Amino acid sequence: MLLDRRDMLKYMSAGAVFLAAPFSLKIAQADSNFIKIIAAPVKKSLVGEGGPLSDLWLYNQESPGPEIRVKRGEEVLVRLVNELEDPTTIHWHGVRIDNKMDGVPGLTQKAVMPGESFDYKFIAPDAGTFYYHSHNKTWSQVARGLYGALIVEEESEVFDKEHDLTLVIDDWRIGRDGKLDLASLGSMTDWSHAGRLGNLLTVNSKNVPTYKLNANEYYRLRLVNVANARIFEIDPNRFDAKILAYDGQSIGKSEKLQYSPLLLGPGQRVDLLVKPKLGNDFSLEELSVGEPFAFANFEIIGKEQEKELPSAPSLPFNNISEPDLENAKLFPLRMSGGAMRPVGEIYYQGKKLEGDDFMRTGQVWAFNGVANLPEEPFFTVKQGETVIIETLNDTNFIHAMHVHGFHFRIIERSFSDIDVSNMWRDTFLIGADQSVKIAFVADNPGKWLYHCHMLEHAAAGMITWFEVVA
Ligand code: C2O
Ligand code: CU
Questions:
Q1: CATH number at residue 288
Q2: Which end of the chain has fewer beta carbons closer than 10 Å to its terminal beta carbon, N or C?
Q3: 143, 159, 175 — which closes off a domain?
Q4: How much distance in Å is there from the Cα of 291 to the middle of ligand 1?
Q5: pLDDT of 216-274, one tens digit each?
Q6: CB under 8 Å to 365, separation ≥6 — which residues?
Q7: Distance between CA atoms of 39 and 139, rounded to whole angstroms?
Q8: Spacing, Cα 345 to ligand 2 middle (Å)
Q9: Of ligand 1's atoms, which has the minimum distance to the CA of residue 449?
Q10: Handedness of CA 81, 87, 93, 98 (dihedral sign)
Q11: Is the pTM of this model over 0.90?
């Protein structure tokens, strides 16, 4: 059952108020140096205190899971304990990680079975806003709440904790009973259309929270879109915010967005800089639902007079190798399938899908004619080579394409050049009939995924892998 997007208003009420100072960050408990992250079922209300209890799956009973904070270059030590009835793993989204720690069952590790645990141990090479999430039956496990923020701090502090807010944004699908709608998990309609769209927007699991900010001080707002499939449309110019970083990577300055709205696809992050003025309370608004819909409010408190301000802060660059476009290897990828277009030839596990094969296998999308992970990689390159992937979206839907283990530059986009610039990304949006070229240096050996981050699309075929050999 697909609910009207406007239904998301239904459960919205006056939200809780959070004081900006001190902004309480929940730091995960260290246990013999390892941070213990327990994935387990929890009953919790998503619609405010006293509301009907949903069957969630959470990390350490919290939604979002505990915020993990390390400094750039530090080692992350996490012990994942699986108390679910399903196998699971953790993927560290956007981290240019040691391949063994990338958390992809069947490709980089064995799934962690119920009752078992797995130690993740890796260096976080880039400062920025990242997140972690389940990567097994991701469409279901993430929809139930298995995600949390991973914040890698700059070596020398740019914003102190009071001026650094992580805003994990989700849209849950709530049934008429006010509980998380589990019956529609795996719905073929979602899988073959725009993915599982929710009807309840939350920020850090709160319905329309209010944050108090001091006037005339700089704040960093880290927006993380953990939704299964929703692309948020926001306009930073409506509250005078500037861009500091995309997908965890600094742009080296703070910049006013030259267009509107900013699309924040599933898996994407953006870091905003605000310096609010007294009397200018503002909201984060979702613009894709018709009338702007405020899902977080910011109340500006403090004194009238303008203080002497330091110049606008910006974030240092991380150290990513620049692609060598002259000597790059080009790999074309054609996306096909889905509803509202002739499905064409799709092969799944070596067999051409026909008739009710689609319903039976759940496979309805393909990359280069193949649904889901092929046995052979999409391509193999040597470590250090520059890769260009030219993706053509021959479907009727927009998609959010994510590369594991690398950040890339968008070097070409048909019909539009708004994001063809010097930003680094790990996830890009691609519209129907659009073609986009991305480039990166394959400097990290291993087996890496390339998939749509609309989690239903990935499950229904939009996923492949490539190999970088040392
Ligand atoms: Cu955030 Cu393969 O995903
Ligand atoms: Cu998609």
A1: 2.60.40.420
A2: C
A3: 159
A4: 31
A5: 999 999 999 999 999 999 999 999 999 999 999 999 999 999 999 999 999 999 999 99
A6: 335, 336, 337, 338, 346, 371, 395, 452, 457, 460, 461, 462
A7: 16
A8: 18
A9: 2
A10: positive
A11: yes
